[in-house]
Design brief:
Blueprint (H helix, E strand, L loop, with lengths): L11 E5 L2 E5 L30 E6 L13 E6 L3 E5 L2 E3 L10 E5 L11 E5 L8 E6 L4 E3 L3 E3 L12 E3 L5 E2 L5 E4 L6 E4 L6 E2 L7 E5 L5 E4 L1 E10 L5 E11 L12 E5 L9 E6 L3 E4 L3 E3 L12 E4 L9 H6 L6 E7 L5 H12 L1 H6 L2 E7 L6 E4 L2 E2 L2 H11 L7 E5 L5 E5 L5 H11 L3 H10 L5
Parallel strand pairs: 14-20, 26-27
Antiparallel strand pairs: 1-2, 3-4, 4-6, 5-7, 8-9, 9-11, 10-12, 13-16, 15-18, 17-19, 19-20, 21-22, 22-24, 23-25, 26-30, 27-28, 28-29, 30-31
Length: 451
């Protein structure tokens, strides 16, 4: 059909107010209406389709050898790693154009998140088929998949791993040590430097001591000290060392015959002091105390407890009393004569209590009669008249009636009795007011000795 031409002429009349204004305008345009001659036999009706990084599969009414004849339909697809943008199917139209366009864009996955304490490296960035391998900082291990791959759909394979702190910290304890107990003690003060812990991941570590603190006294034997350390991931490490405290000891010191020992500390350890004591009626000969040396030997020589020798041939009361100073207590009995009933009664009770008096370190002095027949004695040992008179004057003891004077170890007048005293009453007073704590303990141990 031949092309047709159309001409249009427009005349616009505008009127306003009282007059009329005429605008003449001639506007001619030409519209071409073209209808191509359809030819299904033309092999190049549309331009030959192409798709970079993709593939075009066309089906023509004329057969498989034709790719762009009128009516041909082409299916568009992209290569692996590319995404199709546009029409996936196009058709060759009568106007010699395809019904749409398409192109292939290279696909990529999203940017992977960074992992704390680690990193990743990728073979081709974030493109399809790129593999990203994960590694961790020293002290951390990959927990999960070690790599992820960008898949054709733009999705990463697997899940994001984490870097886990599985490496325990390291701690080193001080070396074990041997410490000798201090003189006179069963313990030793031991100090050491607090151990230092290290961890490849954390700088701040929690170190816990299990056992005694340094700088304190450790008892004899083996003492185990432990340290534990935790990092922030609660990985644990531990170490231990031994503190051995040795108490150097002497052989056990035997007590003297007719006597006993009182020792400080544990009795035979280095620095311990043992004091010698004698039973009633005996006095010490030799050193009064010995000390356990570092060499495990006792200093000095053993002492002896020998029967107490009382000299009665002294010339004064003071000379007599000096023999008892800090050794014995004195119980002085005085009566007008041996026939005095109070004296006789007291004498019988004193004789029966002789063992108890020895346990309490008490010696009995008797003053009987009046001059010139006055006598003074300790058992069978007699005193001179000067000693008897001196005792009476110093302690104001009358010859006119029965009396008893109790003196302590320092020779001081502690109590007077003007009537006979039973042994239980006398011993009760001595035990309560004259014995020290140690003597009371000794008395309890030997109380049955006199039964």
């Amino acid at each position: 059909m031949p092309p047709c031409f159309f001409v249009a002429v427009f005349i616009l009349f505008l009127s306003a107010g009282s007059g009329t204004t005429v605008y003449d305008g001639y506007n001619e345009f030409e519209e071409e209406y073209y209808t191509p001659q359809l030819d299904y036999k033309d092999p190049h009706w549309c331009h030959s389709p192409g798709l970079t990084n993709g593939e075009v599969s066309c089906h023509s009414p004329r057969g498989g050898a034709y790719r762009s004849t009128l009516g041909t339909r082409c299916e568009m697809s992209c290569d692996r790693g590319y995404r199709l943008l546009g029409k996936s199917s196009i058709q060759c139209l009568p106007n010699r154009r395809w019904s749409g366009t398409a192109f292939c864009r290279k696909m990529r996955c999203r940017v992977l998140d960074l992992i704390p304490h680690g990193r990743y490296t990728c073979t081709h960035g974030f493109m399809v088929d790129s593999r990203c391998d994960f590694t961790c900082d020293p002290g951390y291990l990959v927990d999960g998949e070690h790599s992820r791959t960008c898949q054709p759909g733009g999705i990463w394979s697997g899940v994001q791993p984490v870097c886990a702190d599985t490496d325990p910290p390291k701690i080193r304890c001080p070396p074990s040590r041997l410490k000798v107990a201090e003189p006179g003690k069963l313990t030793a003060e031991v100090t050491w430097d607090r151990p230092v812990a290290r961890d490849t991941a954390d700088k701040h570590l929690e170190i816990i001591l299990v056992g005694q603190e340094p700088g304190t006294d450790f008892k004899e034997g083996v003492n185990i000290i432990r340290y534990k350390v935790y990092d922030q991931a609660r990985n644990r490490a531990a170490c231990k060392f031994i503190i051995r405290v040795e108490v150097r000891r002497c052989t056990i010191l035997p007590p003297p015959m007719h006597g006993y020992l009182t020792c400080s500390s544990d009795g035979n350890n280095y620095g311990a002091t043992c004091d010698y004591h004698c039973d009633g009626g005996y006095e010490l000969r030799g050193t009064s105390s010995r000390v356990c040396q570092f060499s495990r030997d006792w200093d000095g020589s053993p002492a002896e407890c020998l029967p107490m020798e009382i000299r009665s041939d002294v010339k004064s009361a003071s000379a007599l009393l000096d023999q008892f100073y800090e050794k014995r207590r004195l119980l002085i009995l005085s009566a007008p004569n041996v026939t005095d009933p109070d004296y006789q009664m007291q004498n019988v009770m004193i004789q029966k209590a002789d063992c108890g008096l020895d346990l309490r370190h008490v010696t009995v002095i008797e003053l009987l009669g009046s001059p010139p027949r006055e006598t003074g004695r300790i058992k069978e040992s007699l005193f001179s008249s000067e000693v008897i008179e001196g005792l009476r004057q110093v302690f104001r003891i009358s010859r006119s009636y029965f009396s008893m004077v109790l003196l302590d170890e320092l020779g001081l007048d502690r109590e007077r009795f003007i009537v006979p005293m039973a042994s239980d009453e006398l011993f009760s007073y001595i035990d309560s007011f004259l014995l020290d704590e140690e003597e009371r303990e000794r008395l309890e141990l030997h109380r049955d000795f006199c039964d």
